[in-house]
Amino acid sequence: MAKLLPLDGGDYYAWKYLPSLPASVLFCVLYGILTIAHSYRLYINRLWFCIPFAVGGFLEVVGYAVRSAAYSRTNLLPPYIVQSLCLLLPPACFAASVYMVLKRTILAVNGAHYSIIPVKWLTRLFVTGDIVTFWVQGGGGGLMASDSLASTGEKIVVGGLVLQVLLFGLFCATAVVFHRRFKTQAVGAVRSSSSGAGADVRWERILWMLYGVSALIMVRSIFRVVEFAMGQDGYPLSHEWTLYVFDTVPMFVVMVVFYIWYPGSLDPHPSNGRGKHLHSRDVESNRRHASNGAETDYSQGSVQMEPFKPDERRR
């Protein structure tokens, strides 16, 4: 029977509880299945901007696998460090793909002028910020394994998490503003049909998917801020159930939701002028068409033009 032990050569307890072996094994398997599914799907769709998402899933698998092994090795430091970092960092990987999906969605409907942030800066701003938060959290997490540096590490991690929350808040605001502007002002950016380039970009469904996963990542990040702000002796770090309720399960749901509503209709190379997004001349043509009496259909989150019939208007 395993028991909680201090680190070798001292009386410092890296673990504040004996990690649950069944829960660790269960989520290692579940995350493994999801990661394989995501990897296969991004390969089939050639959506390489979803690679960070699969990497995040892989980190979750490693984290829970090492956590399982640490069940009977709570006196060893390396397993504690590895599982801590592998469970702390995946949301930053998920966020990187989420940021890139928004940019490609905006380009897919030729809606760059509806974004409050220039589209060319969207990926640079959010992904660069995401990388910064990734390394800040990783560095702080490593320091937390040391008794003398644990307090400093906690503060660094909190700083990285707060930055992640602020970045995500700006991202959500950008997505919502674009959504409202495009829905109320755009007239014919996307034609919904079963064939042809640019015919099946379900932009609104993709945006709602982004809202869902973003909300879950935001809740998890806020929990982590509270967790580390309360310190090593705080309730969250000393009670394992909080990790599973506010981190493990939400991130699992994020991977499930992203897989079910996968952005497979997006162009993997939106800047090359080809693929599934429409050009400005198509949008302008649709606007002129609308000014002559065309009707706009916003069904299914896409835009479809109904032709104007002169004979009907004379009646």
Automatic annotation (TrEMBL):
What is its membrane topology? Answer: Multi-pass membrane protein
Heme as a keyword of this entry, yes or no, is no
- Annotated signal peptide: none
Offer a single GO CC term for the protein. membrane
Keyword Plastid assigned: no
What is the annotated localization of this protein? Membrane
A Pfam family that this protein carries is RTA1
Q: Where is this region: Disordered?
A: 272-315
Where, by residue number, does the polypeptide cross the bilayer?
20-40, 47-66, 81-102, 114-136, 156-178, 206-223, 243-262
Bias (Polar residues) occurs at 293-303
Q: Which domain of life is it from?
A: Eukaryota
Question: For this UniProt entry, what is the primary localization, expressed as one broad class?
Answer: membrane
Keywords attached to this entry:
Membrane, Transmembrane, Transmembrane helix
Name the PANTHER family on file.
DOMAIN PROTEIN, PUTATIVE (AFU_ORTHOLOGUE AFUA_3G01030)-RELATED, PROTEIN RTA1-RELATED
Q: What is this protein called?
A: RTA1 domain protein
Native source species: Sporothrix schenckii (strain ATCC 58251 / de Perez 2211183) (Rose-picker's disease fungus)
The organism's taxonomy opens as: Eukaryota, Fungi, Dikarya, Ascomycota, Pezizomycotina
